[in-house]
Specification:
The complex is a heterodimer of chains A (978) and B (341). Chain A is of the alpha/beta class and 978 residues long. Chain A is 49% helix and 15% strand. Chain A folds into 4 domains: 4-73, no CATH class; 211-218 and 508-542 and 557-683, Rossmann fold; 270-487, 3-Layer(aba) Sandwich (Calcium-transporting ATPase, cytoplasmic domain N); 684-938, no CATH class. In chain A, the strands form 5 sheets. A 9-stranded mixed sheet of chain A has the order 6-25-24-23-7-19-22-21-20, with helices on both faces. In chain A, a hairpin with a 7-residue loop joins strand 14 (361-372) and strand 15 (380-386). In chain A, helix 11 runs antiparallel to helix 12 (463-474). The radius of gyration of chain A is 38 Å and the shape is elongated. Chain B has helices at residues 2-32, 45-71, 93-98, 134-138, 142-147, 173-176, 202-207, 239-245, 303-328; strands at residues 75-79, 105-111, 120-127, 162-163, 166-167, 182-187, 190-191, 194-195, 253-260, 269-275, 286-292. The chains are: A alpha/beta (978), B alpha+beta (341). Chain A: GO terms for molecular function: ATP binding; ATP hydrolysis activity; ATPase-coupled intramembrane lipid transporter activity; magnesium ion binding. Chain A: Its main location: membrane. Chain A: Keywords: ATP-binding, Coiled coil, Magnesium, Membrane, Metal-binding, Nucleotide-binding, Translocase, Transmembrane, Transmembrane helix.
Chain lengths: 978, 341
């Protein structure tokens, strides 16, 4: 059927399962001409699949739209709101409560006053004509009038609710995100990627992060392996410096090391190869003492792998496709050292080799007989090849834990030195592998091959184990060649960044899909783990659990596994409870299978308690879903702010679940970035994002909200106080236009400037004193006391403004001409005072005055006078009560200006006194730093160090802690030796 | 020479242009990197003490001057609402005041405590009178006041928008409740001239009350409120009305009645003959007559001066206490450096 027309009479019935979210299962059948054909996932194309090797296919659509499996799997992007905003909502409710209360009080008083206006047909306040009135003022139906008045009052005191706050916050946040996007310190030149705040909702949340949950590959590391060192025949080669060593060196402040590293960076041009040793490079290894061993070592590197070569047709250069980047690194290293693997067929491997005798390149090909593949339980791989000379070779590489025990008696020549080197490498954060070989005789191989082939071809369920068992028999009596060290390259600046974050009191959890060994290695590399830290390892990869799994009864096995995890958790908890300072901090390492049980409802509290108590937490072998679950657990149970950072599609769940998801716009596609809230190019930018932008944004938004409440309360309460003097009739003291423009013109811009520009301390000091960040984590600047303090300040200011004004302008004349005040003059005077007070209060609380702030604050006040003049000059039809009120009545009266000055100063006095006392006697952290800055003491390095030391919380992870721990050890040793 | 000079100036211009551009770029850079030049005030102890002291030093003298000014104002306040009811009506003041058949004249005698310099302002003061009541404030029609009967939408004036089917000018409760007590001042049997011109705001007279608008059908309803107006005088000249219609801010207020433009000597006795027409008895309001001179600050009110002195002296006290504490605990914060965790 190759033509469309053939399908004209095609009739078939497809029966299939209901729509579900399972991507890898599908059950269905196709009934064609009374015959059933089974349909499996192989026959199913998922939504968004692309055709690769064919132009067209014929098919039938099974599910569409929301019913598709992909759609069923996707969770809608969660709408995230920051904690500050959620608290802000509560404050709005609170204010609304006050508003209702005020209106209620007002309407009661109004109702009583209205009812009394007409009693037994006698009018009291006859000038209001209570006998002939509308429902609003009807004494006969005072209750109705009171209810109606309640509504009027809600509108009148509505200025208490800062509706413009939401708009202003939106504006401010967008500008803040622009600043984040524009920050050159978070711009990654190599990929031309700036930071991108994809949502502006969470800026201030960045200042409150308590726990960071980080992916490993692509986030902490670049996902590229570099061959950096090796130990051959008991001699260590390679002078490359790892990121960890570099960081440690920088910490110690050794300038020599720095220079070396710079040199290094220039030369490291080949990806995956960062090896530097003239003793074996460029073929000079032939002159080394154990040249034969080196030859075998390099040959093993070139042969024992599963990589595929790709020859670039233009320049003949060879690149490799490998299953894992470390394997690629080995082959590259072999190539660079003169053993170029260039061809692989089903049965052979061809290598260009350097012949040590002639010194020329020769082509050799090895026929590949068997590949004993890598598995996480075997922790090694081997190949069996026949060389051109006909010798049978078993080449093997694997983890030290399994390799050393398989060495032959005569193969242990270099064991001691190699072990020593391996430990050195591991501490430098490198991944090590042991290389060994053995020659086989034909008979032995033949027997092995028969058994192995048989095992491979068997159909029983334990085929794999059978094969493993047989492989194990032949992988013994090996002869040690040496060890390799590959750096799982950390991204630039990762150790420093982690150190800073640790100093800021932020916890870092690593959630990775990698093997436990790799994860632990990286833990060491970025100083999350160090020697002397007690590791609590919870693993289900133990032999007992293996046997449990094999047992028939699955549910019993699960229960037993769970019991074992629970037991391990309890033991860890005991260790945690009993631990004291001297024993050093704990590190929790847990694998995915155990995590499954640890995340169950009845265990997860225990797990979380243990995890929180540990200095470092590493979850390895975790699935995307587990990452999300751990994130949710931390988020909901500790109610602290979580930040998830990752770069791959498997981090999407975690990014969406966390309070803030940060995507790394790296190489692993765009999925993580698309579901993140903020995208950065490198992990190290997190430091600036949190400590600088996060801190600033948190401070700005919280000050801004507090101030907003303050200014609206101050304004709203003046209206309320006046009502008490107008028998709660609902008459506003201000002109209508004054009321409407309060939040728009006279007070809005300075707040926005505060929200966009204010800085308590500069970026340099934010980074220099990371503990400043705790102000956000502990929510000091947006605590209820602070909010209430501002609200009270608002009420106090309103009271001062109102009562000072009415007492100063009572009934007497207020100017030389003997004129007395009217409603409009009192209103104008009070409004002038409000504008002055509110703006100057802003000036007092701003700590960073650029000309923009000056322009907005003083401009706002000036604009009020300009507005008053312009509005007053308009026709009375428009300006109504404000007609010429300023130019004719207020401006020429000295008392008007004197009252403004008095009210202004006395309103600011309480806040000024409070902040003076607080600054001097109970300073907050940022205030101390401000103080040092103004004293110029920050330039004194010694003093600075002292301040830092004092302000540092004893940190448990990061290289600063590591350095301190090692220097402590050194000191102890010295004392011992004395 | 000249050519050279021209060259250099051209170069200068180019250089200036470049420098302006680069300066702009620099400012833009500083802006986006949040690194704008800024002044960062820090509340250091010396700043705090200086500020408080300065405030005290400025405020106390202002307060003293203000107080002195206020004391220099001579003010006579005489309540007359009760005295001006004949004894026999004291039991039912409301019916007395509502009885239009009785002539309600009354005499008061005021003693001048000190020499009062002209001009002496005459006010009437009402207490517990809510001119700022919402219904009252809204009950007027500015268009009608300015354009007379041409403006016919007087719904805001209800119920005093019309009587006997014809619209009233001026309409509304404010105009309708116009204050209508009158005063005559006699010193040693000769009547003092009371100038009743220019007692209202000029802007009101010129721009809010029409020169061609005459009272019409005013105070003609069944229920008479306050005073009536001379129909032959345009509204812009009815200054009593204009003064009354600038609603007061507070329930206790004064309104200007007129000016005495000659000095009064100490111990002069002034007889006031007044017509006690206005009904404040229904709602328990008070009526007072006030004679007052004025200073550059206006009338007599000690509040401003007292407040200035109070704020000034309290800031000096605060600064002293602060200084004392500061000296006693030299650097208490250095020990508190560790962050409260």
């Amino acid at each position: 059927m190759h033509e469309d027309s053939n399908f004209q009479n095609f009739k078939a019935i497809i029966r299939c399962e209901d729509p579900n979210a399972n991507l890898y299962t599908f059950v269905g059948s196709l009934e064609l001409e009374e015959q059933q054909y089974p349909l499996t996932p192989q026959q199913l194309l998922l939504r968004d699949s692309k055709l690769r090797n064919t132009d067209c296919i014929y098919g039938a659509v099974i599910f569409t739209g929301r019913d598709t499996k992909v759609f069923q799997n996707s969770t809608g992007p969660p709408s995230k709101r920051s904690k500050v905003e959620r608290r802000m909502d509560k404050i709005i409710y609170f204010l609304f409560g006050i508003l209702v209360l005020m209106s209620f009080i007002g309407s009661i008083f109004f109702g009583i006053a209205t009812r009394e206006d007409l009693q037994d047909g006698k009018m009291k306040r006859w000038y209001l004509r209570p006998d002939d009135t509308t429902a609003y003022y009807d004494p006969k139906r005072a209750a109705v009038a009171a209810v109606l008045h309640f509504l009027t009052a809600l509108m009148l005191y509505g200025y208490l609710i800062p509706i413009s706050l939401y708009v202003s916050i939106e504006i401010v946040k967008i500008l803040q995100s622009i600043f984040i996007n524009q920050d050159l310190h978070m711009y990654y030149e190599e990929t031309d990627k700036p930071a991108r705040a994809r949502t502006s909702n969470l800026n201030e949340e960045l200042g409150q992060v308590d726990t960071i949950l980080s992916d490993k590959t692509g986030t902490l590391t670049c996902n590229s392996m570099e061959f950096i060192k090796c130990s051959i025949a008991g001699t260590s080669y390679g002078r490359g410096v790892t990121e960890v060593e570099r960081a440690m060196a920088r910490r110690k402040g050794s300038p020599l090391e720095e220079e070396v590293t710079e040199e290094q960076e220039d030369k490291a041009s080949i990806k995956g190869f960062n090896f530097e040793d003239e003793r074996i490079m460029n073929g000079s290894w032939v002159n080394e003492p154990h040249a034969d061993v080196i030859q075998k070592f390099l040959r093993l590197l070139a042969i024992c792998h599963t990589a595929l070569p790709e020859v670039d047709e233009e320049n003949g250069k060879i690149s490799y496709e490998a299953e894992s980047p470390d394997e690629a690194a080995f082959v590259i290293a072999a190539r660079e050292l003169g053993f170029e693997f260039y061809e692989r067929t089903q049965t052979s491997i061809s290598v260009h080799e350097l012949d040590p005798v002639t010194g020329t390149k020769v082509e050799r090909s090895y026929s590949l007989l068997n590949v004993l593949e890598f598995s996480s339980s075997r922790k090694r791989m081997s190949v069996i090849v026949r060389s051109e000379e006909g010798t049978l070779l078993l080449l093997s590489k694997g983890a030290d834990s399994v390799m050393f025990e398989r060495l032959a008696e005569n193969g242990r020549e270099f064991e001691e030195q190699t072990k020593e080197h391996i430990n050195e490498y591991a501490d430098a954060g490198l991944r090590t592998l042991i290389l060994a070989y053995r020659e086989l005789d034909e008979k032995e191989y033949k027997q092995f091959n028969e058994e192995f082939t048989e095992a491979k071809n068997s159909v029983s369920a334990d085929r794999e184990e059978l094969a493993e068992e047989i492989a194990e028999k032949i992988e013994k009596n090996l002869i040690l060649l040496g060890a390799t060290a590959v750096e799982d390259k950390l991204q630039n600046g990762v150790p420093e960044c982690i150190d800073k974050l640790a100093q800021a009191g932020i916890k870092l959890w690593v959630l990775t899909g990698d093997k436990m060994e790799t994860a632990i290695n990286i833990g060491f590399a970025c100083s999350l783990l160090r020697q002397g830290m007690r590791q609590v390892i919870i693993s289900s990869e133990t032999p007992e659990s293996k046997t449990l799994e094999k047992s028939e009864d699955k549910s019993a096995a699960a229960a037993a596994l769970k019991a074992s995890v629970l037991h391990q958790l309890i033991r860890g908890k005991e260790l945690l409870d009993s631990s004291n300072e001297s024993l050093g901090p704990l590190a929790l390492i847990i694998d995915g299978k155990s995590l499954t049980y640890a995340l169950e409802d009845d265990v997860k509290d225990l797990f979380l308690e243990l995890a929180i108590g540990c200095a470092s937490v590493i979850c390895c072998r975790s699935s995307p879903k587990q990452k999300a679950l751990v994130t949710r657990l931390v988020k909901t149970k500790t109610s602290s702010t979580t930040l998830a950072i990752g770069d791959g599609a498997n981090d999407v769940g975690m990014l969406q679940e966390a309070d803030i998801g940060v995507g790394i716009s790296g190489v692993e596609g765009m999925q993580a970035v698309m579901s993140s809230d903020i995208a950065i190019a490198q992990f190290r930018f997190l430091e600036r994002l949190l400590l600088v932008h996060g801190h600033w944004c948190y401070r700005r938004i919280s000050s801004m909200i507090c101030y907003f409440f303050y200014k609206n309360i101050a304004f709203g309460f003046t209206l309320f106080f006046f009502e008490a003097y107008a028998s709660f009739s609902g008459q506003p003291v201000y002109n209508d236009w004054f009321l409407s423009l309060y939040n728009v013109f006279f007070t809005s811009l300075p707040v926005i400037a505060l929200g966009v520009f204010d800085q308590d301390v500069s970026a340099r000091f934010c980074l220099k004193f990371p503990l400043l960040y705790q102000e956000g984590v502990q929510n000091i600047l947006f605590s209820w006391t602070r909010i209430l303090g501002w609200a009270l300040n608002g009420v106090a200011n309103a009271a001062i403004i109102f009562f000072f004004c009415i007492h100063a302008m009572k009934q007497q004349a207020f100017r030389k001409g003997g004129e007395v005040i009217g409603l409009e003059i009192l209103g104008t005077t009070m409004y002038t005072c409000v504008v002055w007070v509110v703006n100057c209060q802003m000036a007092l609380s701003v700590t960073y005055f650029t000309y923009i702030q000056h322009l907005f604050i003083w401009g706002g006040i000036t604009f009020w006078y300009i507005f008053l003049l312009a509005y007053g000059a308009m026709d009375p039809y428009i300006s109504t009560t404000a007609y010429k009120v300023f130019i004719e009545a207020c401006a020429p009266a000295p008392s008007f200006w004197l009252i403004t000055l008095l009210v202004l100063m006395s309103s600011l006095l309480p806040y000024f006194t409070y902040s003076a006392i607080q600054m001097r006697f109970f300073p907050l952290h940022h205030q101390m730093i401000q103080w040092f800055r103004s004293d110029g003491q920050t330039d004194d390095p010694e003093f600075c160090q002292m301040v830092r030391q004092r302000s540092l919380r004893p940190t448990t992870v990061g290289y600063t802690a590591r350095f301190e721990a090692s220097s402590r050890d050194l000191k102890a040793k010295l004392e011992d030796s004395l | 020479m000249e050519v050279e000079g021209g060259n250099t100036s051209a170069n200068d211009a180019v250089a200036r242009k470049i420098s302006i551009q680069s300066r702009r770029a620099k400012v833009f850079y500083q802006f986006t990197q949040q690194n704008l030049p800024a002044c960062k005030p820090v509340l250091t102890p010396s700043w705090i003490v200086t500020t408080f002291l300065l405030m005290g030093v400025i405020f106390i003298p202002i307060g003293l001057v203000t107080l002195r000014t206020s004391h220099s104002v001579i003010e006579i306040v005489e309540r007359y609402d009760t005295e001006c009811i004949p004894e026999k009506f004291r039991g039912n003041k409301v019916s007395y005041i509502k009885d239009s058949t009785i002539l309600k004249n009354c005499s008061l005698y005021l003693k001048v405590p000190k020499h009062m310099k002209a001009p002496i302002y005459i006010y009437y003061q009402l207490d517990n009178y809510y001119q700022n009541h919402r219904r009252y404030v809204k009950s007027r029609n500015d268009q009608q006041l300015l354009h007379g009967l041409k403006s016919n939408d007087t719904s805001s004036c209800q119920p005093e928008d019309s009587s006997n089917g014809l619209p009233s000018v001026p309409c509304g409760l404010i105009a309708w409740s116009l204050f209508n007590d009158t005063f005559k001042f006699i010193r040693e049997s000769s009547e003092l001239v009371v100038n009743r011109k220019n007692i209202a705001w000029k802007s009101d007279r010129n721009h809010k009350f029409g020169k061609q608008v005459y009272p019409f059908n005013f105070q003609n309803g069944t229920f008479i409120g306050g005073g009536s107006l001379d129909p032959s005088v345009p509204l812009s000249d009815q200054e009593d009305l204009i003064v009354w219609m600038r609603t007061a801010a507070l329930p206790s207020f004064r309104k200007m009645y007129g000016r005495i433009e000659e000095d009064l000597d100490a111990d002069d006795v002034i007889a006031v003959h007044l017509m006690n027409n206005y009904n404040t008895y229904s709602f328990g309001g008070k009526k007072k007559l006030v004679l007052s001179t004025s200073s550059w600050l206006g009338g007599k009110n000690d509040f401003l001066g007292v407040a200035y002195v109070f704020v000034g002296s309290s800031s000096i006290i605060i600064s002293l206490v602060f200084m004392l504490l500061h000296v006693k605990n030299p650097s208490s914060f250095a020990g508190r450096l560790s962050f409260p965790l």
